[in-house]
Amino acid sequence: MTQTRKPSRLPAHDRHVLYERAVQSPHAELGLLTRLLRRAGQPARRLREDFSGTALLSASWVETGPDRTAVAVDLDPAVHRWAITHRLPALGPAAKRLRLVRADVRHAPRGPFDAVLALNFSYQVFQERAALKAYFAAARRALVPGGLFMLDLFGGHLSQQAVTERRRIGAGVTYVWEHEACDPITHRVRCAIHFELPGGRRLTRAFTYDWRLWSLPELNDLLAEAGFDRIEVQWDVEPPGVEPRYRPRRHAANQGAWLAYLVGRRPGRTARS
Ligand SMILES: C[S@@+](CC[C@H](N)C(=O)[O-])C[C@H]1O[C@@H](n2cnc3c(N)ncnc32)[C@H](O)[C@@H]1O
Description:
alpha/beta, single chain
């Protein structure tokens, strides 16, 4: 795709811009992934970003090296239209190394990729075990032997309660995460993101989610059943309020709310073995 257009002007409170500022940390997440690939002796060149939304991670990836390519996969054409208008032009020549693909992640390009990322809990859209397992198996098939699949997850007893969290994200905007409901029988959770804007205005239900809250052991088992090995939990080892630092852990002290990463490897010879 050739990108010669200039980035178009964004409305001051574009919901995608606010979302990225509030919940995405491409530098930290790609830093963690790169460290894990290096430790595994794998190249860190070809990335697939599943549930990509506006493809911020993919763009950050291709910007960090001329040998890095990314495929951003999303079902919703609107988020990729946004990326074509606002993200790719700002990337310059690196935009040639980023491909936007409209697809269900279970039928996404096969690559092969060095890594597949599924972040911001988006895989929880699959509420049936068979559907989530089919997705995990498809992600494994898209990896080179030794390649890594990384997803994030949250938990703790607070994640099963109706709670509202507020956080200032600069320029007079407050990000509001509302956990509207959790069904203890099905673990179906309904969540919404709102933004409070300067002047008392509000972007209500800017994003909404209807997810199944999968537990860490369930995800761990499903990754194993889908054919991953060396499955590892990357746990935040810093106390609350300190910049997170993720390290592999087999056990952890209980907490009201936590966020972690799960990483699985496609079995087979690694690039250096
Ligand atoms: C929470 S957003 C994630 C955006 C971004 N990846 C992030 O880390 O913040 C979820 C995205 O997943 C997409 N999506 C939902 N179901 C999907 C599916 N089965 N296949 C591909 N994309 C899907 C939605 O269109 C939406 O853009």
